[in-house]
Amino acid sequence: MKRVFFTRHCQERLLQRRHKKFKHLDKCKKKNCADCDLHKKQIYDYINDHKKEINIEIRESLANGHEDRSLINNTEFMLAYYDRYGVDHHFSFIHHDDLMFVLVDNTVVTCVLAKGHISGTTRRSKFKKKDSHSESLWYN
Ligand SMILES: [Zn+2]
Q1: Which partner from 20, 38, 83, 111 sits 20 to 30 angstroms from 92, CA to CA?
Q2: How far is the CA of 82 from the centre of ligand 1 (A)?
Q3: Any idea what DSSP says for residue 126?
Q4: Model-level pTM?
């Protein structure tokens, strides 16, 4: 497999979506929730302690997943990504189980729950800019 990089954002999302103990974050809509703060801190610490395992999990998901090429031709869907990352990139979308991993060139920028994302991306994209700083914190 080609060399890929993982953003911290992707690692956080993977934990949040695939590991039961962090499910609260995916569901909770409360503002200033103490449980959310605690879970975010736990995720932060967990990533620091388990970087290798998490990266292996992402790598295996990518290797066992399948690329959804139809999304590249879905202009409405892609606009959100062009808007955010620019048009001069190679985008790939890899499905594995209920997750979809988003690659921009050779960097896995995030993983999302596949269901609902495809219809919801365009609408949400305008409000997602605040995430971009965390995505520059990438490493191997
Ligand atoms: Zn909460």
Answers
A1: 20
A2: 31
A3: G
A4: 0.77
Asked, for residue 48, whether it belongs to a domain, the answer is: yes
User: Comparing C-alpha atoms, which of 54, 81, 43, 19 is closest to residue 139?
Assistant: 54
51's enclosing H/E stretch is helix 34-64
Per-residue pLDDT tens over the stretch 79-136: 999 999 999 999 999 999 999 999 999 999 999 988 877 665 544 444 444 444 333 3
Name 110's bridge partners: 102
Q: How far apart are CA 92 and CA 107, in angstroms?
A: 10
Distance 76 CA to ligand 1 centre (A): 32
Q: Is residue 139 part of a domain?
A: no
Centre of ligand 1 from the C-alpha of residue 102, in Å: 26
Biggest alpha carbon–alpha carbon distance for the chain: 42
Residue identified by tokens 């919801």 is 120
In the structure, how many helices (H) and strands (E) does the chain have? 5, 6
Dihedrals φ, ψ of 67, to 5°? -80, 135
- Span from the CA of 80 to the centroid of ligand 1 (angstroms): 27
Q: Within a domain: residue 80?
A: yes
Residue 21 sits at φ, ψ, to 5 deg, of -65, -15
